[in-house]
Amino acid sequence: MSKLSGKVQTVLGLVDPEQLGRTMTHEHLTMSFECCYFPPPPGDEAVAVDPFHMQHMHWLRQNPYSSHENLLLQQETAAVHDELLAYRKAGGGAIVENTTAGIERDLPALRQLAKDTGVHIIAGAGYYVDCTHTEDTRKMSVEKLSDIMVSEVLHGADNTDIRCGVIGEIGTGWPITESEARVLRAAAHAQTKLGCPVIIHPGRNPAAPAEVVRILQEAGGDIGKTVMSHLDRTIFDHGELLEFAKLGSYLEYDLFGMEMLNYPYNLVVDMPSDSQRVKTLAFLVKEGYEDKIVIAHDIHTKNRLVKFGGHGYSHILKNIVPKMLLRDISQHQVDKILIDNPKHWLTFK
Ligand SMILES: CCC(=O)NCCS(=O)(=O)O
């Protein structure tokens, strides 16, 4: 039995799973999203490059990916520090920090944040979407990629001794590229060796999550120990959602706080409101999936921080939980979603 077995691995070391408390399973504390810059709508070029002002905050909410400045979350560590203190005060205990290679993971910053705030931070191993893969990454075999992920968990990543506690978010697009498929197979192999949690960023198509599961399963992955992220912008039809849920992964609604009219990466998508997200959670609970739901905000741009008029990391605890209780999700079920499900997922086999 490995020394990781039965434990959760944070950036400060192994902890007993009971220590985590309420856990957001998909956040970013420091990262760059420059890889996904999207040009502003015609006529909005000037506001897109203006320094941040209060009068731009609504524009940024509608066009978060069209301001280079907004994509540099790594510049806001002081604000994130304060928001983590507020998160603890609101009853939060842990955060899974999903930044992987390609979007500027900063493990020393995560370790410092964990030390200074007392929030348990679990860091992610592996690779983001294809457009961020380096030439080296593209050339690597499944075995080599898997060895690197195993080493990031067992020994530390990015030339530090800071160890990752999950594999992911592993980035995939639609269709899944050859390089992304290799990374997925490598993640499954690493998971088999380590008995560790895995988390996936699927492409923006309703068929994408099931295709990822198929690839992971074929490579021996443990789907019951895998989180499928971003379902709120991916599967809308309730029948299709139940078909996907049957495959056995955790079902993650992780864009709480993000409300926008035009989702630039896929204009076919109507980004749901928080009320609609809660309705979908209530539906899944009614269908018997209360042991499979996890939730988060996936903060990945500056405008979502409280410092810039955003909702911050405490929005779910302060605003969404009361709404869940109003919509027939019991306190016991809320606790499963925020405490028990993340704990079971994050505990090494
Ligand atoms: C790095 C953060 C991330 O990938 N977030 C998901 C954004 S979206 O694909 O849902 O637009």
From TrEMBL:
<feature type="binding site">
    <location>
        <position position="298"/>
    </location>
    <ligand>
        <name>a divalent metal cation 1</name>
    </ligand>
</feature>
<comment type="similarity">
    <text>Belongs to the metallo-dependent hydrolases superfamily. Phosphotriesterase family.</text>
</comment>
<dbReference type="GO" id="GO:0008270">
    <property type="term" value="F:zinc ion binding"/>
</dbReference>
<feature type="binding site">
    <location>
        <position position="230"/>
    </location>
    <ligand>
        <name>a divalent metal cation 2</name>
    </ligand>
</feature>
<protein>
    <recommendedName>
        <fullName>N-acetyltaurine hydrolase</fullName>
    </recommendedName>
</protein>
<dbReference type="InterPro" id="IPR032466">
    <property type="entry name" value="Metal_Hydrolase"/>
</dbReference>
<keyword id="KW-0378">Hydrolase</keyword>
<feature type="binding site">
    <location>
        <position position="169"/>
    </location>
    <ligand>
        <name>a divalent metal cation 2</name>
    </ligand>
</feature>
<keyword id="KW-0479">Metal-binding</keyword>
<feature type="binding site">
    <location>
        <position position="201"/>
    </location>
    <ligand>
        <name>a divalent metal cation 2</name>
    </ligand>
</feature>
<feature type="binding site">
    <location>
        <position position="169"/>
    </location>
    <ligand>
        <name>a divalent metal cation 1</name>
    </ligand>
</feature>
<dbReference type="GO" id="GO:0016787">
    <property type="term" value="F:hydrolase activity"/>
</dbReference>
<feature type="binding site">
    <location>
        <position position="26"/>
    </location>
    <ligand>
        <name>a divalent metal cation 1</name>
    </ligand>
</feature>
<dbReference type="InterPro" id="IPR001559">
    <property type="entry name" value="Phosphotriesterase"/>
</dbReference>
<dbReference type="Pfam" id="PF02126">
    <property type="entry name" value="PTE"/>
</dbReference>
<feature type="binding site">
    <location>
        <position position="28"/>
    </location>
    <ligand>
        <name>a divalent metal cation 1</name>
    </ligand>
</feature>
